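To whoever picks this up:

The nightly regression suite flagged Putative homoserine dehydrogenase-like protein as changed. Nothing in the input moved, so I suspect the structure step. Input below, exactly as stored in the fixture:
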Amino acid sequence: MYEIDTKLLKLEEEGTPIHVALIGAGQMGKDIVSQISEMKGMICDIVVDINTDIAVDAYKQAKTREEIVVTDLLEEAEAAIAAGKRVATTNYKLAVGAKPIQSVIDATGSPEMGARVTTECIFYKKHIVMMNVECDITVGPILRKMCEQAGIVYSLTAGDEPGSIIEVYRFARALGFEVVAAGKGKNNPLDLYANPGQEEWIAKAAARDMNPRMLVEFVDGSKTMIEMCAVSNATGLKVDIRGMHGPSCNVKDLSKVFSLKEQGGILETTGIVDYGIGDINPGVFVIVTTDNKRIIDGLVQRDMGEGPNYLLYRPYHLCSIETPITAAQAVLYGESTAHPMDHLTSECITIAKRDLKAGETLDAIGEYCYRASIEHAHAAKAGNMLPAGLAKGAVLKVDVPVDTVITYDMVELDNSSVLLQLRRMQDQLLA
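Regenerated output under the current build:
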């Protein structure tokens, strides 16, 4: 990312900007369109949403001066782009198939949609910026491998907590530090049984211009589990216990709390992912250590504390506002902000939020039926545990009591799902 500002300015001056398409014009998507409108050397040519009015509104909120063409036809979209216009559509295949597009941003949050979009990107050789962490934790390894074979970049996004944590992690590893723990601050109260029909979350979601389901995905802990699972799968850092510790602590306490039990902390082992509830949010952290006396003396002199662990803390993550940097990074450098390794280290499993009955169809993450929790991948496999990314649309074959882990043999899955087919391939080929 060296001189990325200069490179983008040069593209602007030469009239050869990076062409980006966005799929999903919700709260995060609208941020992306507006941020790109402020940048040099990048254009968001196509915005996709299930409602074209929402896609058009994303452009209007970005104060787009160019004419907005509403179409679901590829030829019309390409002609509009060639004429310097912007395209709003319900057809996600336009975002991938249009010839000028170089990077596609998936901001849908739907694991199934993420699988379909990325597969199309592989066919058309377009870089994919995966804001869809729910998809990444389910089939990220095989998608990344397929993207590499196609010569395109598969990347999680800068600014989202996994991307921000991994940036600090890479910094620490490049310097040769041992990583004790990596994590984030949780910015919502934790209620494992929250659902989007409860008045409290309806009101709070409205105040934040959010969908209640999205808010509940954070409140019931699912989003934190998903995000830290993505970090785990990108770094090889593990979980200390199922669901992580999630202690109440503040920034000043992080290096002490996330240390081994024999050092006065909470950890059984090092090299883990976790989160804290306190004044940490909106920051992310990496706890490091070293046994090099010279380096220890230098850290003490630079007010990093007395050790044995030291805190690297980034006090912000800007979510979607930083996403265009990843789109540019893919085109300019052929590099990702973060991506999964070729296997799963952790799995997000599915746990019932209420008593469920045989015959029920499971809803989406953040709704009424279940929450996600993080577990060691090998333990999840041994227990036949259902990945949370595959749960939506599954039909229960048995009654499932509240707080029970839902397993593959408890459900009937939709065999027409692209996501499921990719997951089965991943389990067979990248085990």
